[in-house]
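In this supplementary section we document a worked example of the pipeline. Step one takes a protein sequence of length 312 as its only input; no multiple sequence alignment statistics are reported here. Step two produces a three-dimensional model, which step three serialises into structure tokens for compact storage. The input and output of this example are shown verbatim.
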Amino acid sequence: MNSALFLPLALLLDRLLGEPPRWHPLVGFGRLVKAMERLAYPAQSDAEPIWRMRLRGAVAIALLILPLTLLAWALAEQALLSIVAPIILLYLAVGAQSLGQHAKRVQQALADGDLQLARERVGWIVSRDTSELDEAGVARATIESVLENGSDAIFAALFWFLVLGAPGAVLYRLSNTLDAMWGYKNERYLHFGWAAARFDDVLNYVPARLTALTYLLLGNAADGWRCWRTQAPTWYSPNAGPVMAAGAGALGVSLGGGARYHGQWKERPPLGCGPAPTQADIGRAVRLVQRGMWLWAALSLTTAILIGATHA
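The serialised model returned by step three reads:
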């Protein structure tokens, strides 16, 4: 019940303050991850068996996540911090305002006709090569990032906060950060990062589908559902597929398709339906995520009130 009450307050704090400009804990955690990688990654990785590489990665994850999750639990259990700590920890885990701001900077550059600046700005939030994207390509990349990060950076953190409180939000956010740093299917991380990728997949399974449902409820539900049902199974990520297919269908735009990553062309299945996106659709995607976020806040608060009334 407390988590349901604290969730809207944390989102309001994010709305008012945005992301901390300096000393964000996740930046410090990223440095800690790099230090752990230097300790855990073998000097002669070619000679390391697959099972041992995976074990190294799994142990490294446990050493990184468990102490900080237990610290979050201890802070939330302190009488003097039992209200403040969960709200601040969820605020630090969400980053909704930052996501919207990054996307709107890209939109503004496109609206001003500055394609080069738009390419640079979208490069800050996507991993694909952006130097040759046209306006539709920039808009497509931005919207895909907004929809997917809406699930990863907002709704999944909210879900685990509601389920497990502050420790759940911290556990999820650290896991997601590890996946972003180690979850690549390249030569270096294919086995060492295997546990990070799988753990993140497990934690995101239910939240991703609730996010997709949220997009349907607040957009074109019929097209969103059709795209989710037919296109999500073709996507290479079991959790991003439902989120992006449902979101694209709900917005009535076409996403997906080929893209260049680190100099290599990657063919991706199509997502959504309708015309290619424009800069105006970036704003629509941001609003879709924001409305979904406040819908969760309203449902959370309503649930807390009803539970409180039945126990009064």
